[in-house]
Amino acid sequence: MIAPSNVSKKRLVIVFVIVLIAILALIIRLGYIQIVTGEELKKDALKQWTRGIEIKPKRGIIYDRNGKKLAINISSYTVWASPADIKNPKETAKKVAEVLDMDENIVYEKITKKTNIEKIKQWISKEEAKELRNLNLSGINIVDDNKRFYPYEDFAAYILGFTSIDNDGLYGVEKTYDKYLSGSPGRWVKVTDAKGRQLPYDGERIFEPQDGLNVVLTVDEVIQHFAEKAAKESLITTKAKNVSIIIMEPKTGDILALANLPQYNPNNPREPLDDAKKEEWKNLPQDELEKRWYDMWRNFAINDAYEPGSTFKTIVASAAIEENIANADTKFYCNGFIRDIPGAVLKCSRWYNPHGPQTLKEGMENSCNIVFVELGRKLGKEKLYKYIKAFGFGEPTGIELTGEQGGIIPYNTDIIKEINLATMSYGHGIAVTPMQLINAVSAIANGGNLMQPRLVSHLIDNEGNIVKTNEPKVKRQVISKSTSETMLDMMESVVSKGTGTNAYVPGYRVAGKTGTAQKIIDGKYAPGKYISSFVAVAPANDPKIAVLVILDEPQGIYYGGSVAAPVAGKIIEETLSYLDIKPEFTEEEKKQFEYMEKVPDVRNKTIEEAGKILMEHGFRYTTDTYNISEKSKVIDQFPLPETEVSKGSVIDLYLDEDTKMQQKVIMPNLIGKSREDVINILENLKLKYHFKGKGKAIIQRPEPGTEVDINSIVEVEFSN
């Protein structure tokens, strides 16, 4: 036998190695297919063999804190077609269209699509579903479905939000808790042949959906009702553009109520409630319509920032007391003006009759700007800025709603000039959201702890078992308990003796602070447009609730103490009574109510004459306006003449100078804006206009920043 040559041996080894490598490669490939991509391939194969219809889970219910259902589901049905199983498409389309009141051609187009499954119509009635089932049409399936429904219509709309047609949360708690509320869909699966037709002897399988978890809010339906009722009444009486009310539990940060008016109906969130608006919106182009929708859905309490005005003095005073810069008895002097800031002269609202010597507590009662400018300067910009940040301004509060803003505060202390420090001390030159302000004042009330506002307390399953709990969360300690107590005492005197007397509630110790701030529009203060507010805590000796009332552009009288404080007082009285907190009348209160006096009529008198009459009757008065001359006349007053109030009450006087100012507007900058935007701006300002050309505005007369009469004609030239 001839031994194999070396060449043959080498060839055999090479062949062996190649075969070995090929086997190894096949093993690796097989392992990859089985282990790595096996599940995906199984799913793909299942998709080829089966056809499935999604079964929607029931969306979780939204309850108030006492178990009242605020958002529920109602039973409905959805019609699906399996095109491959439809034997006579024309006849089927005709019958389905008749039952569902649809266009026959549209139905035909849907049921002849080259797809496994096609939705014909969602949310049909029980009667339609029954009629369709009786027809027993091949390839037409009726699946149980459910639809979101808000039984109290527009109630708590800015808390609840709404869902899409597919039951996905789009706004409010519906959006932020969508992953818990939505659940997991089920599936109705059928085995099919290569053409997608259902096999006759296969076993259909139904994978049941898993319902969503139920959400329990911190909101109390009854207290929410108090807030919405008060907001509606206030909107009607003051003709304000918007009214926003928040009620919070200071110790936990729980939101008991949040109302914004005007509001919308979550059952039909794209249609305004106002009939005139509804008619106006019918002819709007789609892009403009969408803009109006977003404007309507804006939650003023968290989406918008405003200058807080004098309500911010509570923050400045808290910082000064905590830093031991001042106490309630520290002396100040108001001569009506601050003149030693380069390039600026600041004045008190009572500059024509200065407050004179007063303590910090009295300065708070009188809401004296001079006191707080001096206090802010003593505190210094570094310390004031530190407390602005510590109280949570400049950052979202973390409430469980979408689109929360952080407000506007200086970026750092380097850009705070002397004039900025002075104006910030009385709440100008800074912008906060209503939620930030009530949360900060709640910290002052609860002993100094800044809480994270809480809107959802826990999640429960359908058996009522608690699945997840959101515990109250302390973000940080901002001030000490002793500073908190001093502040509550000072704020209580604002209501018992100062500018907030209209929030007084017999038997309850109410602490509060008024605020009136001129609005900023297009970067400038807009004459005649104000935001009036009042923030309160009650009872002052054991705070159970904090209330913030904000009126955007009230017509006529606009002082926070006149239009917002009475609203807060009414809410406090109703809420404390509902919470079964008994009123406790002090001896001093009993005596005070023995000396009631009717308010004299001082309308059509000069400010000097009116002041003299009121003081003779034992009343104090305020005008809260800078535009006063000796000839200024009182055109209205609050409370009205003949109203019986306790002696020593503050009477708000509304002067003709305010009306004169409302006849003037500051010309906005129109350059670069489209023709449509310019029309909107000028019509909102009630200015007449004359246009030349199209495109973007390139020339305007008068110039931006010019004060003009509301009857002026504005000329605008556009680029072609």
Explained architecture:
With 720 residues, this protein is of the alpha+beta class. It folds into 4 domains: 53-213, Penicillin-binding protein 2a (Domain 2); 302-584, 3-Layer(aba) Sandwich (Beta-lactamase), CATH 3.40.710; 597-655, Trypsin Inhibitor V, Chain A; 664-719, Trypsin Inhibitor V, Chain A. 35% of the residues lie in helices and 24% in strands. The protein contains 24 helices and 31 strands. The strands form 10 sheets. Strands 2, 3, 4, 5, 8, 16 and 17 form a 7-stranded mixed β-sheet that branches. A hairpin with a 2-residue loop joins strand 19 (511-521) and strand 20. It starts with 5 loop residues before the first helix and ends with a strand.
Number of strands: 31
The CATH class of the largest domain, by name, is Alpha Beta
Give the amount of beta strand, in percent.
15-25%
The profile of the biggest β sheet is: 7 strands, mixed
CATH superfamily of the largest domain: DD-peptidase/beta-lactamase superfamily
Global geometry: elongated
Q: What's the Cα radius of gyration?
A: 34 Å
Number of helices: 24
Keyword list:
seven-stranded mixed β-sheet; 24 helices; Beta-lactamase; 24% strand; Penicillin-binding protein 2a (Domain 2); alpha+beta; 720 residues; Trypsin Inhibitor V, Chain A; 31 strands
